[in-house]
Amino acid sequence: MNIYDISEKTGVSTATVSRVLNRSANVSEKTRAKVLAAIEEYGYTPNVFARGLGLNTMKTVGIMCADSSDPYLARAVYYIEQELRKNNYDALLSCTGYKLENKAKSMTMMLSKRVDAVILVGSNYVEATDDKNDYIKKAAATVPVMVVNGILRHPNIYCTVCDDKSAIYEVTDSFIRCGRKNLLYLYNSTSFSAKAKLDGFRSAVKDSGSLIENEYAHYINSNNLTVHKVQEIVAELAEKGVKFDGVITSDDILAVGVVKYAKSAGIKIPDELYVAGYNNFDISECCDPELTTVNNKLENLCNQCVSTLMKVFADDRSVPKETVFSAEIIERDTTEFKIKKGS
To answer: How far, CA to CA in Å, does 279 sit from each of 188, 208, 223?
Structure first.
């Protein structure tokens, strides 16, 4: 059964059937009712792609993320897909990996599917040099491009971010104010967001003046990263003479690895060692002691991203190009900020 069959059954032109499917006002109610009755009777399902051509919209948004096994990215994709569905849009997902070539190929694929917009999930899509962002800028000349937790300034690109720099700055400053004098910062990415966090750590250390004795930032390759691997790396750093009575991390998995190291080394948390993570994943409440972490408001970011996109579709000229959310420190048992500050 196709549109021509419906046309023959109802005695109207295919153009009239198409107008009924596209909810055009240029059809009489009597004709509309006759066509809809035939569609229901014969179980006709219109071809989505063909209908999209007629409406100039596929009601589909492309979502690109580097790695769907990453907890942050997986959760973000879930929030975005759910919000798109509430707005009657379908989602087309592409897991691109981290190589620039594959990201560009995925973008080309998305545009070939005639998606109405593309959402880039994660700050890893914002490259350090402009030329590596050209494929995104070119796509933005065709459809709106949304970036979740990264900033890329260009026409028709809209960004929703968490103020990661300020969040890590606040955590680091709290460590210092509570008397932590030897700080270790662990991170596992060099993305836009990761650089902002590292900048927050270094800025807080710089602003502290002489309040700390030692500070050390260490990059951990995220390939096949596990809690036990982090535990081993922290132990190696300690053996090499790196001193720390406070460890701040860019991700909760790193922080849990630090907690496991401390337990194996007989170091008391939080008496002898403060630990803080980032993202407020479930693992932060599953570890013992429960982990102080940063809630980066991921659900808010994703909901705002979709909300902004719907306004762009509605041609709302007041839509901001950048929306910034403040993070929230969730203090649990691996620090004693409240006790120290109140004393």
So the answer is: 13, 25, 19
Closest CA to 59 of 101, 24, 98, 89: 89
Q: What is the DSSP string of 56-78?
A: T--SEEEEEES-TTSHHHHHHHH
Whole-prediction pTM? 0.80
Pairing of strands 117-121, 90-95: unpaired
Q: Do residue 27 and residue 130 come from a single domain? A: no
Structural domain span for residue 311: 60-162+298-326
Q: What is the pLDDT of residues 176-212, one digit of tens each?
A: 999 999 999 999 999 999 999 999 999 999 999 888 9
Closest CA to 9 of 43, 37, 38, 40: 38
Q: How many domains does the chain have?
A: 3
Provide the CB-side half-sphere exposure for 151 (13 A, CA): 15
Cis omega (within 30 of 0) for bond into 320: no
Helix ranges, 208-297 (H): 227-239, 252-265, 283-286
